[in-house]
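From the shared-data thread, chain only:
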Amino acid sequence: MWFAVFSILFYLISALMIAPLLNSSDNEKRRPKKTLFFLTALLAVVFHLISLYPALQELALERKFSLVEISSLMSVNIAILAILAMLVVNSMWFLLPIVFSFSIFNVVLETFMPSHMIQLLNQDSAMLFHIGLSIFTYAVCFIATLYAIQIGWIDHHLKAKKTLFPPVIPSLITVERHFFKLFAIGELLLTLTLISGVYHSINVLTAENIHKAGFSFLAWLIFGVALFGHWRLGWRGKRMIIYAISGIIFLTIAYFGSRLI
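Structure, as tokens:
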């Protein structure tokens, strides 16, 4: 439990280091030192992963995984991707408090509100690969959706013409460029996940697998239509935001809802 507590503590410290930036309109000096920030964020995800180790061990040995543990594993993957993205781009500062809050929420649930256990059928090395690919795909799509929300927030305040943006907030063009790249990568990964899922579902056709495949396909279709519309028709703005949020909702229902039926 102490590893989970330390993880929550360092997630909070990392989020608090970023928070002042969102209220500052002209003070570049308030940008946190990246070395210190990465140290606290790295400690947060390391402790988070250590707290998940018993669950991962149980998955490998007993082939069991709970809904809460799956959610926690997804959140730590999202946090790792977001932190690594900061090494390449500077448009993630605005999103990191949301990512860290999601991780804190899942650590709390995992530690203090353990859920019922579920059985994973036909679990072998190929199935473990499929699970890992699914989790990574969800993390990428989730971050892309956060970018879409950021686009909407920036666009709304630009039209209001009343907000002085802090230096940490990137330009709308920069956010859109990163969004479309992640969106396309997420669609590609989701395609691979669906192919892998079909391979495993052929042998075991259950209500859970049908539910998961159906909603995942709907998410894939929504993302695909959005990308095609952007590529051929120049779709941007609110339409793309609606498609991104709709797609992640269906993907969330596929990944989590299938475990509740």
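Helices lie at 2-18, 34-62, 67-85, 96-112, 125-160, 172-201, 207-233, 238-256.
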